[in-house]
Amino acid sequence: MMNDSSHQQSMKELLDFLFSLHRFGIKPGLERIASLLDSLGNPQDSLPCIHVAGTNGKGSVCSLLAAIFQSAGFRVGLYTSPHIRLFNERIRINGEMISDADIASLAGRMMEEINREHTTFFEVTTAMAFTYFAEQGVDIAIMETGMGGRLDATNVIKHPLATVITSIDYDHMEFLGNDLETIAGEKAGIFKKGSPIIIGEERESLIALFKSIAHAKQTGDVYTVNDECSFMNIRMNADCSMNLDCVIRGMYMTDLHSDRVGVHQARNILITLLTLQVLKSTFDIDEAAIRAGIISCTTMTGIQGRIQCVRLNPPIVLDVGHNSACLRRLRETLDACGYSKQKWDIVFGVMKDKPIQEMLDILAPITQTMHCCSPVIDRALDASSLHEACMKQSINAVHHDSVADAIDHALQSGNRLLITGSFYLAEEAVIALEQKGILVNQTNHRPEAE
After folding, report:
1. Residue 165, Cα to own-chain centre: how many angstroms?
2. Of 10, 58, 228, 404, which residue is the least packed, with the fewest Cβ within 10 Å?
3. Same domain (yes/no): 257, 314
4. Predicted TM-score (pTM) of this structure
5. Is the dihedral of CA 177, 180, 184, 185 positive or negative?
6. What is the rounded CA–CA span in Å between residue 410 and residue 420?
7. What is the pLDDT of residues 171-197, one digit of tens each?
8. Residue 416: inside a domain, yes or no?
């Protein structure tokens, strides 16, 4: 039997190899993923799937759907990206992460094809998810796209039970286009003939574009949150939870309690509930399961970092927001949770390709001290450059050698602490907070069989 240290080393070597596939970069196109899945017997063709795309909110909608289906007693596969703590987080069944042994087995089966086709990291993880879910016999697979849609590796799904589009904004413009209409068109590339479409985007001009594309592709019926749903009586709480009333196609649900907070999350709940209504003839889920999934979404799915209050007094809030739209929603939500006149120590790290000045402008009014740091990834802006950008905008700032160091110094202030800017920042922050006993490990990792 392999001892713990040997197992850890072998997994590290395997994951190092998988992460090294990033060297092939982002290569839009479906040829490599199709070839890889063909070598595995095309497991995606036998999976009942809900396919979700969008710029912001798609991870939250996926996790809400997964939590509700799980609460209703279904066996649910959930594929999201990126991860925060462990690679295994990307692929879960009923909240439980794929095991190291299953990762190793699946990677071994794909290795020849990976080496021959120079398959990218995301393509490999997507093929792994499809295969794992099919072989584990899930009742439903919730599949989140990566950054795009039309050429995204997940877009090999031929007959999704439903196709969902969340909000659209500017991100990854070098691949998706420089205007919202072009970006939306790329996201709509996941529309399939006969599949019902659920549109969560608010802007009527983009909704009209989606409807036009749906008509051209002969999809199933198109449902829009704007026309079918509404929420009211929203009450946001200091612990970053909220209560609200919803109307979904004439069905009233009062005093829903959500462990996710914000007007944007209220809309994500509407998108989720509308999707369930559209699929009601296939999956008839009762109100008790809906309520249970919404209140326990984070713990049931393990998906963390969505304006998450990890400590209340003094508050520590962790958010994976990584673009300007996310940070605006973060500020609005903190205001609504009762923090409108308060400033924060902010641990901030960001990728080089983001609109850094605009993001700093958004955070400046709520900043007591900006703790600049750089996650350990080549794409990250170095802490000294971020500090210099803060100085140019007259933001009180200090820079640190690591994310952990930034958190340590910020905690010493005793002030409210906000951690935001990147999934990669969140990954290192969660580790630092766990080591300090502030955040309980919620990775829900399945141990290896003895």
Report:
1. 14
2. 10
3. no
4. 0.88
5. negative
6. 13
7. 655 556 568 888 998 899 999 999 999
8. yes
Count Cα atoms within 13 angstroms, Cβ side, for 118: 7
Say if CB 369 and CB 391 are below 8 A apart: no
Q: Provide mean pLDDT across the span 431-435.
A: 93
244 inside domain: yes
CA dihedral 260, 263, 267, 269 (to 10 degrees): 20
All residues at 6 or more sequence positions from 91 whose CB lies less than 8 Å from its CB, including other chains: 77, 78, 79, 97, 98, 125, 128, 129, 132, 133
Helical packing angle, 356-363 and 324-334, nearest 10°: 0
Length of the chain, please? 450
The verdict on 381 and 253 lying in the same domain is no
Q: Find the domain containing 265 and state its range.
A: 9-301
Residue that terminates a domain, selected from 260, 283, 301 = 301
Alpha carbons 309 and 406: distance in angstroms, whole number? 18
Q: How far apart are CA 242 and CA 260, in angstroms?
A: 7
Q: What is the CATH number of the domain that holds 94?
A: 3.40.1190.10
- 284-318 in b/e form (b: 16+ CB < 10 A) is ebeeebbbbbbbbbbebbbbbbbbbbbeeeebbbb
Q: Are residues 239 and 320 in the same domain?
A: no
Structure tokens given for 51:
């396919």
Closest CA to 64 of 388, 293, 226: 293
d(CA 124, CA 91): 12
Compute the radius of gyration of the chain from its Cα atoms.
21
User: How does pLDDT run across 358-371, given as a tens digit for each residue?
Assistant: 999 999 999 999 99
Q: What is the spatial distance between Cα 39 and Cα 434, in angstroms, rounded to a whole number? A: 40
Q: Choose among 424, 352, 423: nearest CA to 389.
A: 352
Output the CA–CA distances (angstroms, integers) from residue 21 to 16, 114, 145, 381, 444, in the order listed. Answer: 9, 9, 18, 22, 26
118 phi and psi, to 5 degrees? 55, 50
- Comparing C-alpha atoms, which of 203, 170, 175 is closest to residue 189? 175
DSSP state of 98: P
